[in-house]
Amino acid sequence: MRRSLLLIIATLAAAPALAIADTVELGSRPGYLVGQMAGGALKDRLAACEGPFTTRLFSIAHRGAPMRLAEHTEQGYRAAAKMGAGIQECDVTFTRDLQLVCRHSQNDLHTTTNILVTDLAAKCTRPFSPGRGAECRTSDISLAEFRRLKGKTDGADKTAKTPATYVNTPATGTLMTHAESIALFHALGAKFTPELKAPAVSMPFNGFSQSDYAQKLIDEYKAAGIPPEDVWPQSFNLDDIVYWIANEPAFGKQAVYLDDSYRIAGWSPMHKETWRHEMADLKAMGVNYIAPPLWVLLTLDGDKIVPSAYAIQARAAGLKIITWTVERSGPLKGGGGWYFRSISRAVKNDGALYPIIDVLARDVGVVGIFSDWPATVTFYANCMGLD
């Protein structure tokens, strides 16, 4: 399996920027996951499913393909497209000169790029020191300086005594601006789900307000001639969603509210009285899409995985549901970790993944699933006839 994956990655790195919906290659991982499943009708159907496979909107690339390639890099985005992701994500933040770039966080350059082994390290908010690491923000540097960096797999050696050992892994990925990601995704035949990230700096920053930030994201799609129906802008900040609904209604119609109510102490997807928002109130505000982590949408009825009260109420209110993130937890053993916390008793090994995806698709009714390795979701969508 590893040799097959590495072969795909090597091919993708050299691939030209062409629409590739008719050349989807899923590799061996879907077959491996099916092989781990317990017997039954779902396993039989998936085991009998053969290509050719095509790009599906149900398959949403989470930061590219970070299960194997550096997140938010051209190489990762190309890999995700090759694996049939119909929608791609650029997490959007800004540089010191207020240019939008693709990074998961405004303050992650020290763990996702080679900045600490360049002369730009001196510009970091908190330069490297042994035992304390560093903090480097996109807002510490200009766009021209950002372009000098290379992306790497997220992570760092926190015990490191030097910047080189802290960085720890090779940095070879090509970083991208938000506008460049739009051009690339369009060329690859994918649609768009940018996420407006929370700033790590106080706003306004250099005269740049939160509403300016939200507007600039939309303006870059308009400048590129991208139709609003091809864009699902996201934010954890409900005020951003409300701004788009009021000021850019064509784009706001598909704005995705990333509900992080689960962070509230005592919150439960099974107890409505703990929820921050009534689902009907969100719908009345003009919110049409909601996106919680997958564990929020699931619970157990005995040993059976079923929709949570949260999922049932969201559907009843007319909200469309997207969820995140599969293929982010490593091997699914001993409960599967944070993303599976509400159903951990039913998650014993990797064979649980497709049954979980099946419940999300069939019973919860999600319209898309984010994945760190899009081939997994693309395969399921093809086999089950999902768009």
Write a brief caption for the model.
This protein is α/β, with parallel strands linked by helices.
Task: Provide the descriptors you would attach to this structure in a database record.
alpha/beta, single chain, three-stranded mixed β-sheet, about 15% strand, eight-stranded parallel β-sheet, about 375 residues
- What is the number of E strands? 17
Shape: globular
Q: Span from first to last CA? A: 27 Å
pLDDT averaged over residues: 94
Which spans of ≥5 residues are poorly predicted at pLDDT below 50?
Answer: 1-21
What Rg do the Cα atoms give? 21 Å
Main β-sheet: number of strands, strand sense, barrel status? 8 strands, parallel
Q: What is the beta-strand fraction?
A: 5-15%
Description:
Helices cover 31% and strands 15% of the residues. It has helices at residues 2-13, 29-35, 41-47, 74-82, 109-112, 143-146, 163-167, 178-187, 210-223, 238-247, 249-252, 279-284, 309-316, 353-364, 375-383, and strands at residues 56-61, 85-88, 91-94, 100-102, 126-129, 133-135, 150-151, 173-174, 191-192, 195-196, 234-235, 256-257, 289-290, 298-301, 304-307, 320-326, 368-371. It has an eight-stranded parallel β-sheet with strand order 9-2-1-17-16-13-12-11, with helices on one face. Helix 1 (2-13) packs across helix 4 (74-82). The longest helix is centred in the middle third of the chain and has 14 residues, at 210-223. The chain is globular, with a radius of gyration of 21 Å. It starts with a helix and ends with a helix.
